[in-house]
Every structure is written in C-alpha cells, then in structure tokens.
Design goal:
The protein is α/β, with parallel strands linked by helices. The protein contains 20 helices and 15 strands. The chain binds uridine-5'-diphosphate-xylopyranose (UDX).
Length: 479
C-alpha cells in the first residue's frame, strides 16, 4: 500500500521504517529541515536498536523515502498517518500540532485515502477530531475521508520488535460510517501477527491511556512493596517471584527502584489526573501512583545520604546512567536529572557517565554543575558513593571489585535492583537497593557463608533518621 507518515520523531520514524519493512511504499514527511537533512544523509537522529539498519535497507530497496513537501507526499497516499508530537514539553498536552498538521494535510488527501492518527491524544480532544477534519474538508469541498486512530504501544529501546510483533493492534473509529477506513488499516497490518481490535475512537484512546496508567501503577505498587520489604527486612525479589507465579499477577513490569521516567508514563499519569480534575473527577489511585513515583527519586538520594552518615555535603557522588532507561538516548523526565540536581542542592559534587555521549552532554547543560566522565571507572574514581541510575548492560558486566578499589568509599546504591547483592558484597562494596536491604562488608563477614551474610539485611534502617556514619550502619546490621 502507499503510505505517508507525517512527523518523523520516535513514533513516526519507527512506524515508517517498519511499514516499509512490511513491503509498503512509504514516504516519511518531516518539516524540521535539520532532521530531514540528517535522515536524507542516512543518519537516524536518535538511538533505537535496529532502526538505523532498517531505515538504510528500506531506503536502498526504494520502499522508504523522506520528504519535506506535505502536499506532494500525500497526494497519492492510500493511508496518511499523523505522528506529530502532542507534548508541550512541560508536562502538558499540545494539540495545536495536530490541528496544524490536519490543516496542512487534509486539503491534499485523495478521495480514496484514509487518515489515521497515531499520535497520543487527550481523551477530551477525541470527540472534536472527526469534526475538525470534516470542517477542513468542507472548506475545500472535498469528499468524505475516514478518520481513525491507531495508538502505538511501542517501548523505546524495543520499538522495532514491539511494532513487528505487537501484542495487539488497536484501530479506533473517529469517523468511518462505511467501514472503508477500518478495512484499509486492517490491510496495512495484514502481515503482522497478533489480534487486530477495532473499536470506537474514544475506546482506543482510553485503551492506550489505560495501558500506560496500569503499567505506571504496577511500578509504583512494586516500589511501595519494596518499601514494606525494607521496613520488615524481607527481600522484594523473593516476594515478587512468589507473587509472579499467580497467573492473575505475572512478573513483568514489576521491578522496584527509582521509578518510571520517559516521555509517556509520567506525562500521562499527571495529565490524566489534571484532565479528570478539570471535569470534577478525582483519581486518588493515580495521585498515589504519581506521589510514590516522584518520592522514589528523593528516597534514592536519602539512601546515599544515610550511607554516608547523614549528609552528602562535600561528598563526591558518581551516577552511572542518565537516560531514562537503557538502549535509548532519551532524557525526557529521566530520574537522573532530578537526582543529580537534588544531590548538588544538598552540597555534593556529582559526576556522571552514560554510554550515550550525546545524552551526557545534554544532561550537563540541563543540570548546571553536573560533571561528566569518559567511562564508568573514571566516574567512580575517588567517589564517596556511586548510584546506579540506568541499568545499561555495560554496568551489569563491569568489574565492580576494581570500581570499589578506585572509590574513596566503596558504597553503591542500586536504583534499579539490577545487580546481585551478594556479588557486590563479595566485590567489597557496601550495597543497597530497593526492597533488598543493605549489605555492608565487615571483618566478621569473612568467616561467614553468603547465606549467613544475606540474613544480616537491614531492618527498617531507612525508615529511621540517620545519626551516625557508615560504621554505625554496620553496627545496626549486626545488632
Ligand atoms: C511506555 C510504554 O511501555 C509503551 O507501551 C508506550 O507506547 C510508551 O510508553 P517507554 O516510555 O518507552 O514505553 O518505556 P517503558 O519500557 O514503559 O519504561 C518506562 C519507565 O519505567 C522507565 O523509566 C523504566 O526504567 C521504568 N520501569 C519499567 C521500572 O521502573 N520498573 C519496571 O519494572 C519497568
């Protein structure tokens, strides 16, 4: 099929490349000249595994082209997909982008085309969508065009595989009285495995929103559970493993730590709370999800502070990882930025390393005073404590014993529960994570088996105000 995709950000470019890989004839339209010229030179402007190769292969095969000319690119398309951004960059919605896009594209659609919105939309915008398109169409005296939604459920870092092997494809009908539009979109995904669900536009928008809100809720639940495990001295990993066997619960998206970041989950939780409140509806569960999530970032800093004896003032703290999760260079609502700013405000000096050098440079601009290092080992050198912020595989595989020897004080707080506590203890580090307590190496440990040592997990340590340095922490563990 002939497909035109408007907007070549994360969503639009992944959609364009994947549809071309499914042997559709795709034109990707981008109005930002710098982005367009970078793509025309074969450069994908962000990090997404597998995407550069997919773009190159399909450009070479002639199935994927890029253009800055909306009118020419849409004139003969059977499906026009709108994938422009709908964030205002400040945690709010930006629907002007959609409006502007519709104004620029609708007059050029052919009579056989269907318009498909893939950008995430606020539910309150949905009832207006069909009417806006209808008005623009009537002004140009054009024939009826089906208007549909096709929300994306792709995760950054796994966007290509999520697109090619989706759990489901959702089609929302905003305006399609004859069903022609739904038929076209079904054809578009003919080669993709997984069920295709057609529903109303509002249902599709809420299905997208509901999925992200539920994922956010699971993470905040895992974090609250981890807090209880720390309070009572249990191990959240064991607890979750046992819970996950229950098929009603399952084990994915259940990892405790510094909480969720990125462009979708935090934004959608906040905007849903605000949008509902504007219409007089309270959403107390989502308010708790948001509060727990924001709190985790501060708890991470508090924990570093506790392990340093109650203050980070004058301490040098290394942060490993800056992007909001591995395999992306995205810093949008990355917990690292807030954590670094908080540590600096509490009087620490902060040095960070991330495998994505571009993200590192941007973070240094966004957080004045943040230093960066050329490698993980360079970052931890002479540090009083290190914090693992993003679980890049590079950090999971690094020589932690060597890292500990380079540090002024070998203290590691794992914000992603990504490392094995006993392995870190054996590497000579004091190690703390979420819901798995804190392990502090001690002379007395040397004659003990790992099992005996793990039994010495802290009991409620982080619920108490800290009054004494690390040695006292070790004392608490012994008592
Ligand atoms: C999300 C949705 O997963 C995706 O379906 C939607 O289309 C876009 O939004 P994304 O923002 O790319 O995708 O990231 P995701 O993998 O969902 O992770 C979001 C955040 O949650 C990350 O900061 C991650 O580190 C954190 N997370 C994830 C946890 O803290 N614990 C977990 O168990 C899983």
């Amino acid at each position: 099929m002939r497909v035109t995709v408007l907007g070549l950000g994360y969503v639009g470019l992944v959609t364009s490349a994947c549809l071309a890989a499914l042997e559709h004839e795709v034109i990707g339209v981008e109005t930002d000249e710098a982005k367009l010229s970078s793509l025309s030179n074969g450069l994908v402007p962000f990090h997404e595994p597998g995407l550069s190769d997919m773009v190159a292969t399909n450009v070479q095969a002639g199935r994927l082209r890029f253009s800055g000319d909306t009118a020419a690119a849409t004139a003969s398309a059977q499906i026009v997909i709108v994938a422009v951004g709908t964030h205002d960059g400040n945690g709010g919605w930006q629907t002007k982008t959609i409006n502007d896009c519709l104004v620029s594209v609708v007059p050029h659609l052919s009579r056989d085309a269907a318009l498909v919105v893939r950008s995430t939309l606020p539910p309150e915008f949905l009832p207006r969508l069909g009417a806006i398109v209808g008005r623009i169409r009537d002004e140009g005296d054009q024939p009826h065009i089906p208007v549909l939604l096709n929300p994306e459920f792709t995760r950054e870092g796994q966007a290509v595989s999520d697109f090619m092997k989706p759990d489901r494809v959702v089609i929302g009908v905003a305006d399609d009285p004859t069903g022609r539009g739904v038929k076209l979109v079904r054809r578009l995904y003919r080669q993709v495995p997984g069920p295709i669900l057609a529903m109303s536009g509002l249902d599709a928008a809420l299905a997208k929103l509901g999925s992200n809100l539920f994922l956010a809720t699971r993470i905040s639940f895992a974090n609250e559970l981890a807090g209880l495990c720390d309070l009572y001295g249990a191990d959240v990993e064991q607890v979750v493993a046992a819970m996950a066997y229950d098929q009603r619960i399952g084990g994915s998206f259940f990892r405790a730590g510094i909480g969720f970041g990125g462009s979708c989950l935090p934004h959608q939780v906040t905007m849903t709370i605000k949008g509902a409140a504007a219409s007089g509806r309270l959403t107390p569960l989502l308010a708790a999800v948001e509060e727990i999530n924001r709190g985790q970032r501060g708890r991470f800093v508090d924990r570093i502070e506790t392990l340093l004896g109650g203050s980070v003032k004058g301490a040098r703290i290394a942060l490993l990882g800056l992007t909001f999760k591995p395999e992306t260079d995205d810093l949008r609502d990355a917990p690292s930025l807030e954590i670094a700013a908080d540590l600096l405000a509490r009087g620490a000096s902060v040095v960070a390393y991330d495998p994505m050098s571009g993200a590192m440079a941007r973070a240094a601009q966004l957080v004045p005073g943040l230093e960066t290092a050329p490698s993980a080992l360079a970052a931890v050198e002479n540090a009083d404590a290190a914090g693992l912020v993003t679980e890049w595989s590079e950090f999971l595989a690094m020589d932690w014993a060597a890292a500990g020897r380079l540090m002024r004080r070998p203290i590691l707080v794992d914000g992603r529960n990504a490392l094995q506590p006993l392995a870190m203890l054996d590497a000579g580090l004091s190690y703390s994570s979420f819901g798995r307590g804190t392990l502090v190496p001690d002379e007395a440990d040397l004659n003990q088996t790992p099992r005996e040592r793990i039994a010495r997990r802290s009991l409620g340590l982080f619920e108490q105000p800290a009054t004494s340095p690390l040695f006292a922490t070790a004392q608490v563990l012994q008592d």
